[in-house]
Amino acid sequence: MSDVATSAVPLARVVRGGLVESVHAGHVVVLAPDGDVRLALGDPDVTIWARSSLKPLQAVGMLRHGLDLHDEQLAIACASHNAEAGHLDTVRTLLAAHGLTVADLDNTPDWPLDPEAAWSWREQGHGREPLAQNCSGKHAAMLATCVAAGWGVAGYREPGHPLQRALHDAVAELTGVPVEATTVDGCGAALFSTSLVGLARAFGRLGRAPHDPAHAGTPEGRVAAAVTAHPWHVAGTGRDATRFMQAVPGLVAKDGADGVYAAGLADGGAVALKIADGSARPRAAVLAAALRVAGVDPALVDEVGRTPVLGHGEPVGAVEATF
């Protein structure tokens, strides 16, 4: 396995007052609709933890094993949500439809990601709870998959559980890359390694699926249709993953912790990136630049990718992609 520190190249500069203040290095790959590599900076074959960018792939695996959700619930299964009221209502409804409650969730207790949602949550007398953690939709869907498949819910997070073995196989099949390592994600669920180009390949497959009559009704097509129809459920108010999908018709985009982003286009083109220092700051600017390379109209993505550098609350520079 190659390390993310090896062969990383500058992907973004932080410019303040006309001077480069800092630089973010990493890896990015852009695939053409036929799967050929259109752009590779750094090492496209680098082995990564794709973190929450794996969620749409995991959702495909869950549908393959009997899970059946309506589109908003399927979008929340792919989400790193803000824990705004509508997100939490959807998670509760998903659980209830399968005879489950929030007490069954075993993800890491946390506050809502959105500051206003966190304030409201605390005012209601809540503390850190699994429901409010951004991965509660994925965990609700995992539990529901266990119910649908007849698997016990006890230990559903563990790598040896039938659910996690099924998701392991789905990730390997969709990416075309064997899973070389398994660990525990921040939410407590099993996390599987992949390569950057494998992640892009899987997202290209997702992006194309709803627009191909032979695949529109497949798990891949259903997941892509759900997240593109309900991008707010995938992230939330003000989040760039939601805004990118709202801006680009048919785009399937999912951010991941520690500097990961992946996106698939309706024509099958795709992008994946990993910021080597794990920072979220340059991700939107780098994704916007990569989508332009993939053929997306700059007018659709430039505003979403704009990341100002502030001085006393006013823009004095920007985070700029190097390509």
Helix and strand arrangement:
Elements: E1 9-16, E2 19-31, E3 37-41, E4 47-49, H1 55-64, H2 71-77, H3 85-96, H4 115-123, H5 136-149, H6 162-175, E5 182-184, E6 190-195, H7 196-208, H8 219-229, H9 231-234, H10 240-247, E7 252-256, E8 260-264, E9 270-275, H11 283-293, H12 298-305, E10 308-311, E11 314-321
Antiparallel strand pairs: 1-2, 1-11, 2-3, 2-9, 4-6, 5-6, 7-8, 8-9, 10-11
Helix pairs in contact: 1-5, 1-6, 1-8, 2-3, 2-5, 2-8, 3-5, 7-8, 10-12, 11-12
**Hey, roughly how much beta strand do the residues contain?**
15-25%
Uncertain runs are none
How do the SSEs run, as a string of H and E? EEEEHHHHHHEEHHHHEEEHHEE
Query: What can be said about the biggest beta sheet?
Result: 8 strands, antiparallel
CATH class of the domain at 9-66 and 159-321: Alpha Beta
Total strand segments: 11
Question: Averaged pLDDT, please?
Answer: 98
Helix content: 25-40%
Give me the CATH architecture of the domain at 9-66 and 159-321, please: 3-Layer(aba) Sandwich
Overall shape: it is globular
CATH topology of the domain at 9-66 and 159-321: Beta-lactamase
Query: How many helices?
Result: 12
What class would the helix/strand composition place it in?
Answer: alpha+beta
Rg from C-alpha positions? 19 Å
Distance between the termini: 26 Å
InterPro entries: Asparaginase_II
Protein name: Asparaginase
Pfam families: Asparaginase_II
